[in-house]
Each structure stands twice: as structure tokens, then as C-alpha cells.
Amino acid sequence: MIKLPPSEEQLMQYIWDLKKAFTKDIVQKYPEPKPAATTISTLLKRLNEKGFITYNTYGTSREYYALIKKEDYFEVHLEDLVKNHFKDSFLNLASFFTKKNKLTKKELEELEKIVQQQLKDQDL
After folding, report:
1. In the prediction, which pLDDT does 66 show?
2. DSSP 62
3. Tens digit of pLDDT per residue, the chain (124 long)?
4. HSE of 18 in the Cβ direction (CA atoms, 13 Å)?
5. Which of 4, 34, 55, 82 pairs as cysteine with 8 (C-beta 3.0–4.6 A)?
6. CA dist 68 to 23, 26, 65, 75, 107, Å?
7. Does residue 47 contact residue 53 with C-beta atoms inside 8 Å?
8. What angle do CA 60, 46, 1 make, to 5 degrees?
9. Alpha helices (H) along the chain
10. What is the DSSP-derived secondary structure letter of residue 53?
11. Which of 29, 18, 6, 27 is nearest to 53 (CA)?
12. What is the pTM of this model?
């Protein structure tokens, strides 16, 4: 799966959030100054051509929706990130983020709970 440029990835985020949306709905998600509807239409056309979205037509309007799940998109790119920058080790990635992001004690405790639950699940 290809990595989208930032402008298209941001638009995909809005489509994932909205589930289904017309161009006007998508434009409203953007912060001020909002892009022109024609700019959004161009990005939607590109995403459609790349197979990320499709649409239903209602008269002259199009209702867009994602063909690619958000989780699938980010999982593929997270794996590439780990492979290319963390010696193919999720442990190296986790270590990097826990040290560099200066997690709070509460966040580290929550992370520990997640790890403990994963260990329990693997023992089943």
C-alpha cells in the first residue's frame, strides 16, 4: 500500500472520521482558512484513482467513503517505520517512544497494564 502525501492523508482522516461524506461535509472539517471545494475535489479524485475511496452518486452529488480501513493503512506504514528505522524491532520502537516522549508515571503504568494483559492473553 502506498504512503499518501500529507494533504491526501489528512483528507483520508476526515473521511474515516465521517464514515460517509459529501464534499461540503469534508470542507467543514478543515480548520480556517478552509481549502476551496475545488481543491478538495481534486484530492478526492486522486484518492479515488489510487483506490482509497469510492463514492455513491445522488443526482450531481457524490457521497464519498473509504475503501481502505484506517487501521490497515497505518499498520502497513508502522511496520515500514519499524523495519527501516528501528532494526525491525517493535521493542526498539517502544523503547524509543517511552524515553523520547517523556511519558508520565500514569502513562507508563497504563502501558504496563496493556503489556500485562497481552501476556495473559498469550498464556490462554
Report:
1. 98
2. E
3. 888 999 999 999 999 999 999 999 999 999 999 999 999 999 999 999 999 999 999 999 999 999 999 999 988 888 888 888 888 888 888 888 777 777 888 988 898 898 889 888 888 6
4. 22
5. 4
6. 19, 17, 9, 12, 30
7. yes
8. 130
9. 6-18, 23-29, 37-49, 70-85, 90-100, 105-123
10. E
11. 18
12. 0.72
Q: Which residue has the cell 504512503?
A: 3
Cell of 92: 526498539
78-83: list long-range contacts, CB under 8 Å, 24+ apart. 80/3
Cell of 37: 471545494
Please tell me the distance from the alpha carbon of residue 124 to that of residue 54, in angstroms, as a whole number. Answer: 41
Q: Are 46 and 8 contacting, i.e. CB atoms less than 8 angstroms apart?
A: yes
Q: Round to the nearest angstrom and report the end-to-end CA distance of the chain.
A: 33
Nearest alpha carbon to residue 68 among 118, 12, 121, 11: 12
